[in-house]
Amino acid sequence: MNSIAPKTIPSHALQTGAEFKASLDDGRQLWVNGRKLAKVTDEPALEAGIDLMASMFDDQFDPAYADATTVLDRKSGLIVGRSWQVPETIEDIRGRRAMMEYTSLKTAGTFGRPIDLGPTIAVGILAHLHLFKDFKSGFDECQPDFIENVQAYVEEGRMNSITCAESLTGPQNDRSSPMAQAASLLRVKKVTRDGVYVSGAKSVGSIAAQTNEIFFTNLGYPGTPKEACIWGAVPINSKGIKLVSREMLSQPGADPFDHPLTHKGEEADQLVIFDEVFVPKNRIFNLGSEHGLAVSGKATIFAHWHVLTRLKVKSEIFVGCAQMVTEILGTDQIVAVRAMLAEIIEYNRTLEAFVIAAEAGSFVNESGVMVPDVMMLTTGRLYAIRNYPHIIHVLQEMCGQGLVMRFGKAAFENPEIGHHLAELLPGKGVTGMQKEQLMNFIWDLTCSSLAGRVALFENVNASPAPRMRERLVNEFNRSSCVAKAREVAGL
Length: 491
Fold this sequence. Notes:
The protein is an alpha+beta fold. The chain has 18 helices and 14 strands. The longest helix has 29 residues, at 301-329. It starts with 16 loop residues before the first helix and ends with a helix.
């Protein structure tokens, strides 16, 4: 009798949620509301956000999410997280998009920088290593091998499930001074054979307090001094790093009925202060090269793909909410309401088209990495953020007084008033409590303090519309369009 050998399951290099949480208890220096925390989990909003992130690691072991969150690493033969996947084929592109859709849906789009966003910067640099072949350090005392370091860092991230924040921007300050930007740049203060010491600050270090490392650089400008041309990564608990967090905006500990979304905590933004922080030689990806700094615009291609995909997923949530509102309020046959629903559907379908177009236009570049069509990404992001505030307003308008007159679970369960609410507030085919829970979710998604932060973040993170329009003009080759216009016009 023949026997069939049991199917072997490849070993993995995955991290559990518990392991991720334990990695954050590392003595990092963090202040919230002027209070220094002994541990990052001492702040309830941060702890709840960390729990949500930890669940993403645990989902890697759930067959329902394994395809979206993990992949077989061709080099090692191990199952690894998709966060650090370097796309080489169109199947890889589609797989990585599945990961981005998963993290976006998991957080309802409120985490602009979930566990798979930070790695996109490192992968983005790796995708453009062909541009680094002639780059050398501007400091004779320290000569890192940029190409080798980037390759090793991506490999380290993939094999160890590193989470990392990324920050390119400096602190906001007086823009009327021509030296304002220069004054806020992160700078090399001391150079040694084994690495450099940097001082300065990075702003909007989203999720920095809740991750393992920070990936940093400066947004350069013509004439950026060589000491400010620095690109690297260090552990977030490195000596000399101080994290000053903005105020918390979520509702940790709230009843999930009252706050279906914001009770899950949040990603927080930190001002990351560098005070003589040592960056080891093998963690330096650019040092003293203004040309290397200029690659940053290209290296964000996967991050921008993440932005567009997340906005697309959020638009799907908007459509779902809008449809449920029309059904529950019995307004699905009112022409004006159907027109508003159509606007939200149009927004969603257009973003879906941009995502598909960016994917369809993918190609293997000179570094052997499959990259999406950057023009489709930029145009899609421009459309998304320009219309985002309007779509939010349309959804709110469809809800009517439901977002103004909200009542918590305790009110419905109070014996003196609950029966009045149950009698007065039912929807079509649903109880008053069921209708209220939907309105509470839409409140958290569009009206809460956290929703306000997310809307502002989307505009800044995706790049403001004027900057993206300038990028379109600079990067879109219009010669073929001119040739066609000349041909049909007989010029």
